[in-house]
Amino acid sequence: MPLIDIKTGTITEKGQIVIPRSVRETFLPGEKVAILAYNDRIELRPLGTVEEALSCAYASEKTLKKDWSLKEEDEAWKNL
Predict the structure, then answer these.
(1) Count of the separate structural domains present in the chain
(2) SS3 of 34, please?
(3) pLDDT in tens, 21-75
(4) Is there a domain that residue 3 lies in?
(5) What's the farthest any 2 CA atoms get from each other in the chain?
(6) 26-to-2, 16, 65, 67 alpha-carbon distances in Å
(7) Is 10 a domain residue?
(8) Do the domain assignments include residue 64?
(9) CB within 8 A of 43, min separation 6: which ones?
(10) What is the model's pLDDT at position 69?
């Protein structure tokens, strides 16, 4: 996704940041957002796009959980 604009803000003592109106308006009122923290930046993304990208991982975990139920399996994989 291309960079659209650069805005500045200030972090308060409580850790709050005001998101400029022009940026807030890119999201729908009441829309859930994912907050992705990196070493050099923080991203706000619509939660649906992040959940969609991770759905493969969730499905794999749920599938494995149903079939992985023996202590022997836990023992065999614990040092990997």
Answers:
(1) 1
(2) strand
(3) 988 888 888 988 888 899 998 888 888 777 666 666 555 555 666 666 677 777 7
(4) no
(5) 56
(6) 14, 20, 38, 42
(7) no
(8) yes
(9) 35, 36
(10) 65
